[in-house]
């Protein structure tokens, strides 16, 4: 469970509200060496309906699955 506080900190630093992605099990939060945080959709690697780096906030998504 140590990952959850880290994920919550990264979500706060995203710079935009994530919308549905904030609660999706397919989200992956990444941080660059300079401290920029961005969100990637892991499901997009096999579901062609989705984009790898969605424009935030996401209000509708056919691949959304609550985490």
Labels describing this entry:
alpha+beta, 67 residues
| Low-pLDDT runs | none
Describe the biggest sheet?
2 strands, antiparallel
Counted up, domains total 1
Overall pLDDT level = 91
Rg calc: 12 Å
Q: How many DSSP H or I helices?
A: 1
Main sheet: strand order: 1-2
What overall geometry do the principal axes of the alpha carbons give? globular
Range of strand content: 5-15%
Q: Briefly note the structural class of the backbone.
A: alpha+beta
What is the helix/strand order?
A: HEE
First CA to last CA: what distance?
14 Å
Fraction of residues in helix: 10-25%
Number of strands: 2
Q: Can you summarize this structure?
A:
With 67 residues, the protein is α+β, with helices and mostly antiparallel strands. 15% of the residues lie in helices and 15% in strands.
Q: What would your notes on this structure say?
A:
The protein is of the alpha+beta class and 67 residues long. Helix content is 15%, strand content 15%. A two-stranded antiparallel sheet has the order 1-2. The two termini are 14 Å apart. The model has no long low-confidence stretch (mean pLDDT 91).
Q: What secondary-structure arrangement, pairings included, does this model have?
A:
Layout: H1 3-12, E1 27-31, E2 37-41
Antiparallel strand pairs: 1-2
């Amino acid at each position: 469970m140590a990952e959850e506080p880290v994920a919550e900190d990264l979500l706060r630093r995203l710079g935009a509200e994530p919308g549905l992605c904030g609660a999706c099990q397919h989200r992956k939060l990444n941080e660059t060496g300079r401290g920029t945080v961005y969100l990637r959709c892991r499901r997009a690697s096999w579901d062609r309906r989705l984009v790898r780096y969605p424009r935030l906030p996401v209000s509708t998504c056919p691949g959304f699955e609550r985490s």
